[in-house]
## 1
Amino acid sequence: MTAAQIKILVTGAAGQIGSELTPLLRKKFGPENVLATDIKTDIPPVLNDSGPYEKLDVTNPTRLKEIIKKYQINTIYHMSAILSATGEKKPQLAWNVNISGTHNILEASRELNLKKIFVPSSIAVFGPETPKELTPQETVLKPKTMYGVTKVAGELLCDYYVQHYRLDIRGCRYPGIISYETLPGGGTTDYAVAIFYAAIKYKKYTCFVNKNTMLPMMYMPDCLKATIDIMEADFSRFEHHSNFNIAGMSFKVEDLAAEIKKHIPEFTVDYKPDYRQEIADSWPKSVNDAAARK
Ligand code: AKB
C-alpha cells in the first residue's frame, strides 16, 4: 500500500494519545487521508480544521460501518477506551466500550476487508500475581480491574481474528503516557501528568497514590514512535500481535516531585491515596520490551 492509498480512521481521536497521533498521521499521509472520530462533540483545537472529523460512538456498529464505507477506510487506529479508574466506577460502561467497541472494530474490519488495524492494550493486563520487575512478555495475566479484564480479552480477541480471519492486527501494552497537549482522563497513571499542571498553577499537588508508587511510564513522542514503528514493522515476522510490552521509564512519585522542586522550589506534594492505590499496587514497576524491540 503506498502512502497515497492509505485511508485511516482514528477512534478516540480527541483523547490523550489520539489528539497527538492524529496530527502526526495527517502530516505523514495527508490530512484528507486521516479521519478523526470521537464520541465527543467538542474536539481539541489541534484537530480543528486540520482534516475530516465525524462524531462516532464505537458501540454503534452500523454507524461505524457507514463511516468506513463513506471514507473508504482501509486502516484503523482504535484508540477509544474507558481507562482503569473510570472503569472501576463504571464497570458496565468499560465492558461495553472496551469489549463491544473493539469487537465492532474487528467485525467491521473483517466484513469490509480492512488492511491494517491497531488495537492498543495496557500494562493493566497484569495483576498482583505477575512479576513486578521487568515484567516479561509472556506471563500471568490475572488483572483485578475491569479495564484490565477488557484489555486481556481484547488481546485474545485480536489473536483470534488474526488466526481465524487472517486480519493484520497490531498493538502494544501502553504504560502511563506523559504528555501536555490533551490531559489524560480516568486513568490511574494520570497523577504523573496532573503533578506538572498543579506544580505550575498552584505550586502544590495532592497525589492520589503514595510517594513510593512506581509505575512504568513513557513520554508521548516515544509512545507515538512505538505506535508507528509497530504499525510499519513486517507483520510476517511478528511473534505477537496486539500485546507487545513497551517500556520507557519508571520513577517513584517522590522522585518526580523532587525533580520538579528543582525548577519550582516552593512546590509541595501531599499524599492522600484513594481507590487508585490498589490499582497501582497491582501493576508492574517496570516491563521488559525485548519482543517489541526485536
Ligand atoms: C490507566 O492508567 O488506566 C492507563 C493505562 C496504564 O492504560 N493510563
## 2
Amino acid sequence: MFVKKFAFQSAALAAFTLAPVFAATAYINEIGYRPGDSKELALVDANGNVDFVNAAGQVALSVTPKAASFWDASGQNVQLVDFSKLVEPGKYSVKVNGNELRSDLVVKTKTYEDVVKAALKWFYYQRASMSLEEQYAGKWSRAAGHTNATVELHNSTGASGTINSTKGWYDAGDYGRYIVNSGITTYTLLSLYEHFPEYFKTLKWNIPADGSLPDLLAEIKWNLDWMLTMQANDGGVYHKLTSLGFPGDVMPAQDNSKLYAIGKSTAGTFDFAAVMALASRVYKPFDASYATKCLDAAKKAYSWGLQNPNQNFTANPSGVSTGAYEDSKPGDEKIFAGTELFITTGDASYKQSGTTEYISYWGDVTGLATYEKATHQAFGDAGEAKQKILGTADGFVKRAESGFGVVMAKDDFVWGSNSTAANQGVWLLHAYYLTGDEKYYNAAVKALDYLLGKNPLDMSFVTGFGTKSPKMPHHRPSTSDNVDDPIPGMLVGGPQPGGEDVGSAAEWKCADYRTGQAATAYTDQRCSYATNEVAINWNAPLAYLAGALEALNAGYAPEFAVDGVAKGELPTSSSSVAESSSSQGPTGFTAPVERDLVRESQPRFRFDNHKLYVEMNGKRFDLKGERIK
Ligand code: 9MR
C-alpha cells in the first residue's frame, strides 16, 4: 500500500517538475507515413532543428524546418518540416532542442489499409432494415431499425398511396435516406471499385456475404437496392425517405416514427440515373440481370428527367423538417447522368457537354462527370476536362507548399469541411492518374495527412483512429448504444465557423465553440451537428482517397489506364467506349485488351515506387515496350 502511494506521488511530482515549459507543437498524420512517400509535418512555436528519434533512442534524422509562413485559416505561423528521408519503418519521437514534442510518429507499409477497411465497414453500420450481428458488428451489434416496408407517399410527391421501401444506408447521424446524397456517395464508392477492381476483389472487412460479390460491391448493393425502390412507375425518383421531423436520440429500432417518401425531384432523378448507369457496368461481370435492371432504371429515370427538367426540390414542404438537399439547378446532375449513360451504352444521344474546375459536393456533381470525361476520349470535351482537372490540381499543389502544408484554404471551411479536404485529395489523384506526375500524388497524401492529424486541432477526424480522435460524434447510434467508444471509421464533418448549432437552452444546441478562426471552429460534442456529425457523403471520399492510395501502392494502376484512355490516346472510332478492344499506353505501348478476360494474359499498367510500367505474362516492360530486367 505504502509503496503504491509513494510511486504515485513521485510520478505526480516528476510530471510536475518535468512538465515542459516548451509550447511548441508538431502536427502529424497520426496514423503514419509510408516509407517511400514524401513526408511532412507542421511545426508551430518552435525554434531549432527537428530530430526524429527511433525506439533505440538514436537520432535517425535531423531536419532544419523551412521558414515560417502564415496560414490565415488558423491564424498560425507555421514551419513545414520535410522528413521524407525517414524511411525505416518504426515508431519515432519528435524532438526540438532535446524537448519531446510527441512520441507517436509512425513509418509503416500498408499505411492506411485499416482506415480504408474501417471507413468502408462504417457503411455496414449504417444499414437500415437489418440487424447487425455480433459476429460482424462486435460490441456495436444492434437490432434492425426501420423494417416496415410500407411507406406512405407524401402529398409533395404528387401521388397518394404507399410504396414498399427498405434497405439503404442511413444518411448520417439521423435516420433519413436521401437520393441526392446517395448519388454522390454511391458514385464515389462505385468509382473506387471501377478504378481498382483487382485490389478490391480481395480486400475484406468482415461483413455478411452477398453471393460471390467482393465486400465493396456487396456493401454498395445494399444502398442500390434501396435506391431502386424509390423510383416511381413513370421513371421519376422520390427525393427522400424520412419521417416528418428528425427522430430523437434513440437507436434505429426505437425510432418508430412514420416514414414517408417525400418529393420527387429532377436533381435526384438524374443523380439516380447516373449511379444506376455506373452500377450497371460494375455489376455486369457478377450479375448480368441486376446490371440490366440498373440500366433500365437509369434510362427510365433519364427520360423522366428530360421530360421534367425543372421539378426542383427547393425547400421542405410544410410540416417536414428533415434534411432538404435542396437544389434549384439540376443542370449538373443532367450532365452527370448523360455522361454515365453514354459511357455504359455508347449511345451518343446521351452525350452531354460540360466540365468544371470545381470539386463536387452533393449539390454540384459536374466534377464527377469531369473525371469521367477526362478518361474517355470519346467525349468531345475530354481535353477540356483534363485541362480543368490539372489547372485546379496545380492550385492545390501550390497551396500545400506553404501555411499548414495542406490543401485546405480558409474558404473551404464549410459544413462538412472534411469532405472538402477528402474530395480535394480525390481530385489530386485524378490529376495523378492523368499525368503520372508525383507532385499530385504527394499533395493527395497531404490531403489525407490533414484528415488524420496534421491540422491545427491536432487530431485525427476519423473515430477510433489516431492518438486523439472524436469521441462524441453527432450520431444517434453512437450516443444511444451504451458503448463508450463511438462506432469506428467515421469521418466527422469538421471545423467550420457557421455556428448553426450554437444556441442556449434547446436540446441539440451547443455552447459557442467558435474561435474566430475557420480551421479551429469545432467541438467534439454530440450537440454539434454542424461540426461533429458524420455522413455517408463524407466517408465515401475518405474511403476513396485512402483506398486508392493503398491500391496504387499495392501495385495497381487505375483500370482506365489499362484501356489507355487515361492518356487520351485511345482511338475514338469505336462505337462503344466500354467495349474498346485495343489499348495504347501513355507513350504508345500497344497491346490488345479486352474487358472481362482473364487478367493474367493481358498487359496491365502497374505502379512500382510511383513509376508506371507494363506487366504482361509476369514480365515487366517499360512504356516503349522494352523488357525491364
Ligand atoms: O451536408 C449538408 C450540408 O451541406 C448542409 O449545409 C446542411 C444544412 O442543410 O445539411 C447537410 O446535410 C445533412 C442533411 O441535411 C441531413 N442529414 C445530415 C446531413 C449532414 O449534416
## 3
Amino acid sequence: MEYTFDKLKQIKQSLEKDKTLSASEIKKKYLNKDGVLSEAFKEIASVEKDNKAEFGTQINSLKKEILDILEEKKQEMVNYSTTERIDPTAPFDVNCSKDFLHVLDNKGTKHPIEQEIEKLTDIFKAMGFAVMESKQLDDDYHMFESLNFPKGHPARDMYDTFWTTDNYVLPAHTSTMQNRALKEFSIPIAVVLPGRCFRNEATDAGHEHTFHQIEGVYVDEGISLGNMEAVIKSFLETYLETKLEVRVQPSYFPFTEPDCEFIISCPFCHKEGCSICGHSGWIEIMGCGMIHPNVLREAGIDSTKYSGFAWGFGVDRLTMIKRGITDIRYIRNADLNFLTQF
Ligand code: DAH
C-alpha cells in the first residue's frame, strides 16, 4: 500500500517539473488512457479499504492540479493572441523612447510624401487637371527618344540614369510620361503625372537617389508662355498659401522650346533673405517650357495647330520648402522621430 501512496508523491514531483511542457504534452503524459495518472487511478481497486478515501482525495487533487495547469495554459494562449500580437517585421527601434510605443498600436499612417502628393494633386484637380501615375520601370523610348533626345545626344548625360541588364531604365524624371499622356488624352489636354524617380548620384542634404516629381502637361490651340506662368503661379500660391512674385528664366531641356526655370520670391522672407532661399530672396522651383514641336509630333499631335506647356517639379523639394525640412535624406530614413511629426 505504501507503494501506491509513494507513487502519487512521485507523480506530484514530476508534475512540478513538467509544468513548462506544452498542454498537449502534459495531457499525453498524464491524462491519456495509458497516462501516468490514468494508470494510478487503476490502482484504486488494490488500495486497502481504510486508505481508499485518502487515496481518492489525493489522486483527485492531483487530477485537479493538472486540469488547472491546462486551463492556465489555455488562458495564456487567448491573452497572447488577443493583446500581445505584434508585427515582428515592423520598423521599430526597441531602444526608442516610450513615447513611440503607441505606434505599435496604430495601423500606421500615410508617408509624408504620399500625403503631400495627395494635397498637390487635389489642387490640380480643382484646376481641372486629370491625374495619371507614372511608371517605375521604363524604356529608352519614353526616357529619351520620345522627348527629343536622339541616340548618342550629349543631353542624355544630364540624367544619371540607372539601367537594368536587359535595357530597362528607372525613370530619372516624370517626363517619361509625356508621350503617353499626349497619346492617351484628347485635346484640350490637362494632366498631372506624379511618380517616383531615380538618379544614380551621390546623396547629400539636397540630393537623393530616389525622389518624387509631378509632371504637368497642358495642350490646346493658342497656348502661350503666359498661360504657363499663370497656371504654375496660381498652383504655387495655393500650395504655399501666400502671394508670390515669379520669374521665368532661360534653361535647357531638349523637350521644350523655349526651355525655362520657374523662380519664386521666397515665401518665408519675402525677398529679405533667409536660410531657406540661401539669402538670395528667390527660389528656383521647377523646370518648365513650351512643349517642343518634335515631342508633340512624336505623339501624333499637329504642332502647327496646337501648342502646350509642361513642367516637372520635385515633390520632396517643395515639401522641404513648405515644411522647413533641412535634409532630403530624412524623408526616406524611416525614422519615427521624423515620421511621427506628420
Ligand atoms: N524633367 C525635367 C527634370 O527633371 C524637368 C522638366 C523640365 C519637366 C521642363 C518638364 C519640362 O516637363 O517642360 O530635370
